[in-house]
Amino acid sequence: MILSAEIECIIYDAQSLKEKRSVLKRVKTRIQNEFNVAVSELDYQDLWQRTCIGLVTIASDKVIAEQTIQRTLSFIDSFPELERTETVLEWL
């Protein structure tokens, strides 16, 4: 089973693209180290306070894939510099 998530976030404290990329790099690296998930910035690369992050996981069981993505989303919510505004999950 393949589960993907598109997450739109606001980064309130970023005052430049450099600060935004610093926050995103830290978040993406920690996600990749903690979970078996592929992560990438999908949209809004030129906006310094907004981003869209894509997550993808593959598992043999639907429940395991859902648990992995939900744990990853909770982990993203633990970052004080990011606010998750919209999340779209899609089974492939």
From TrEMBL:
SUPFAM superfamilies: Hypothetical protein TT1725 (SSF103007)
Gene3D superfamilies the record matches: TT1725-like (3.30.70.1120)
Cited InterPro entries: DUF503, TT1725-like_sf
Pfam family, one: DUF503
Protein name: YlxP-like protein
Organism of this sequence: Halobacillus alkaliphilus
